[in-house]
Amino acid sequence: MKIALNAILISAGAIFLSNFASAQDPSSDPGNRVNLSATASVEVAQDWMTLSLGTTREGVDAPVVQTQLKAALEAALAVAKPAVSAEGMVLRTGNFSIYPRHGRDGKINGWQGSVEVTLEGKDFERITNTAGKVQTLTLNGVSFGLSPAARTGLEASLQAQAIDRFKAKAQAVATAFGFGGYQLLQVNVGAVDHAGGGPRPMVAMAARSAMSEAAVPAEAGRSQVALSVNGSVRLK
Fold first, then answer.
1. CATH fold for domain 45-146+195-218
2. pLDDT, tens only, 11-29
3. Which phi and psi (to 5°) does residue 180 adopt?
4. Domain extents in the chain
5. 121: alpha, beta or left, given left = phi > 0 and alpha = psi -120 to 50?
6. What's the Cα-to-Cα distance from 158 to each of 46, 166, 215, rounded to whole Å?
7. Rounded distance between C-alpha atoms, residue 92 and residue 81, angstroms
8. What is the rounded end-to-end Cα distance, in angstroms, of the chain?
9. How confident is the model at residue 234 (pLDDT cuts 50, 70, 90)?
10. For 163, phi and psi rounded to 5 degrees?
11. Is 192 exposed, middle or buried (0-12, 13-18, 19+ CB in 10 A)?
12. Which residue, 1, 8, 39, 82, has fewest beta-carbon neighbours within 10 Å?
């Protein structure tokens, strides 16, 4: 009887302590909790170009197809590498793949392959001139965006603006509901993100010889860049 009574008292004490701890932790109290979000955005000039070059080959012999792709890639790199210049133009190889081609009977009747090279950076003229000189690959597409340095520079400014807007919104909501202020419970700060101005693909030119030694025509635009802050507050 005494053991059972002690167990009941201990259990009651544990419940009391648990409830007391919950009362001391605002995040565990759903009362007067409001979820909010705020965004800061700015329109900026795109200062980073990404230009993709590539080609395909096919044949009945996989090693022959591979050799042809390798030759096209090596020739392209020989032209492009001398133009590499820090952030001005970065060169990187992309997809290099060979896969079987099947006939109607389901059997392999040949091989197809593709190779890709990407030129990117801040020096648009250097990139387009280099692309125009590469004769073994054709233009797959071009897109514009922000350089890593530009993103970093924008992040601090947009973050401060978004946080100020979040705080102002939280206070406005508290006032509208008749409270004097608010207590921050949780907050998430996003990363700089494009709200528009995405990639603009360009059709590969069939007559490559027509643009021999000529710069690929391309022009950058502007991007809408945004950063969001979202979280929850407790009105008090």
1. Alpha-Beta Plaits (3.30.70)
2. 444 444 444 444 445 445 5
3. -85, -25
4. 45-146+195-218
5. left
6. 17, 12, 36
7. 10
8. 47
9. very high
10. -65, -45
11. buried
12. 1
Please name which of 125, 111, 33 lies closest in space to residue 83, comparing C-alpha atoms. 125
- In SS3 terms, 87-140 reads as CCEEEEEEEEEEEEEECCCCCEEEEEEEEEEEEEECCHHHHHHHHHHCCCCEEE
Residues 53/138, Cβ–Cβ less than 8 Å: yes
For residues 227 and 40, what is the distance between their CA atoms, to the nearest angstrom?
6
In angstroms, the CA 169 to CA 20 distance is 31
Q: Which of 128, 124, 113 is nearest to 56 (CA)?
A: 113
Q: Which of 77, 64, 201 is nearest to 134 (CA)?
A: 77
Are the beta carbons of 231 and 154 closer than 8 angstroms?
no
Largest CA distance in the chain: 101
Q: What is the DSSP letter of 224?
A: E
Question: Does residue 59 contact residue 112 with C-beta atoms inside 8 Å?
Answer: no
Quickly count: other Cβ atoms within 10 Å of residue 235's Cβ: 19
Give me the amino acid identity at 47: D
pLDDT in tens, 90-138: 999 999 999 999 989 989 999 999 999 999 999 999 999 999 999 999 9
Tens digits of per-residue pLDDT, 188-217?
998 877 654 444 444 333 333 334 456 666
Six token digits for residue 100: 């079987």
Residue 199 contacts residue 156 (beta carbons within 8 Å): no
Query: In this structure, which amino acid lies at residue 27?
Result: S
